[in-house]
């Protein structure tokens, strides 16, 4: 059966933490999942699938419908489902600069997700609402060139200023500008902080735009499920105000 692939983008309304599991030495005890080849944080397809499955179950309960449909759509140990989920990539990452917040992307991401092609000269390129010949991204300072592009309307609602950087820089810029927070574990018996239980954890910051794909063998009520992510979120640290995202199908309304 032919699978229809659709592209979606999402805005992080809160910081996002999808943990890699365990601890490591470094600036954060609890790290987030990354692409092995690039080191760029990602939103695993398994996390998207598991969360959407649960929200679909809740939706069916609220509508008074048979929950067997969850298995029909998502599958179980004995059968495969009718929908596929693929890992989410960071499409635009917010970084502070002297121009205000600037959203950073790469030529490869622009071409794959938005069908926008940049001039092959490369380098740091101002693509949306930036006129300066130089720009700082965090503590890094670059000479930039201009190659303005029309972004899809839904992206423009979320992005004020945007630049494209080479892939080799993108990973460093993203990882240098992740949120690192400190917290303490609470003793469930006393309701107070545990002694010596201080820990740090990473998060993708609020305002990040991610993109992912879903494959459909048959239609199901996916549009009815997407609002749940805005209120109940995805990933860990939900009790600390993490996880809410706004999801929209990525419409190809921008000119290359």
Q: What does it look like?
A:
This protein is 24% helix and 33% strand. The two termini are 32 Å apart. It has a domain of 87 residues. Strands 1, 2, 5, 6, 7, 8, 9, 10, 11, 14 and 15 form an eleven-stranded mixed sheet that branches. The protein has a two-stranded antiparallel sheet with strand order 3-4. The chain has a two-stranded antiparallel sheet with strand order 12-13. Helix 1 crosses helix 6. The chain is an alpha+beta fold and 256 residues long. It is built from six helices and 15 strands. The longest helix is centred in the N-terminal third of the chain and has 19 residues.
Order of helices and strands: EEHHEEEEEHEEEHEHEEEHE
**What is the percentage of strand-forming residues?**
25-35%
> What's the average pLDDT?
89
What is the tally of helical segments?
A: 6
Structural class: alpha+beta
Bin the helical content. 10-25%
How would you describe the shape? globular
Q: Say how many strands there are.
A: 15
Low-pLDDT regions: none
Largest sheet: 11 strands, mixed
Assembly level: single chain
Computed over alpha carbons, the radius of gyration is 20 Å
Distance between the termini: 32 Å
